[in-house]
Amino acid sequence: MSILTIRLPEDKHERLRALAQRRKISVNRLVDELATVALANHDAHARFLTRRKRASPAKAIKLLEGLGSR
Questions:
Q1: How far apart are the first and last CA of the chain?
Q2: What is the Cα–Cα distance from 49 to 63, expressed in whole angstroms?
Q3: What is the pLDDT of residue 68?
Q4: What's this model's pTM, rounded to 2 decimal places?
Q5: What share of the chain in percent tops pLDDT 70?
Q6: DSSP character string of 7-69
Q7: CA nearest to 35, candidates 2, 68, 69
Q8: Where are the domains of the chain?
């Protein structure tokens, strides 16, 4: 496990502390959860960009047109 020191404005720290209290978790756990969400969003975006490069607009249109005939 790593230790990370960050500098935050006091008001932001207070808001994070209050949020953690409401969720009944530590600020450390809250920041860990927020980091997990940020990384998952980043990974999903990267996957989307990779798949977009391989995409075929013509195939997509044909597929969508086929859905209308059901």
A1: 53
A2: 20
A3: 75
A4: 0.71
A5: 97
A6: ---HHHHHHHHHHHHHHTS-HHHHHHHHHHHHHHHHHHHHHHHHHHHH--HHHHHHHHHHHTT
A7: 2
A8: 11-65
Copy the structure tokens of residue 47.
Answer: 């996957």
Size (the chain), residues: 70
For 8, which DSSP code? -
Q: Which residue has the tokens 């044909």?
A: 62
2: closest CA among 32, 34, 27?
Answer: 32
Q: Which amino acid is at 38?
A: A
And the tokens for 63? 């597929």
- Residue linked to tokens 């999903």: 44
**Contact of 24 with 33, CB cutoff 8 Å:** no
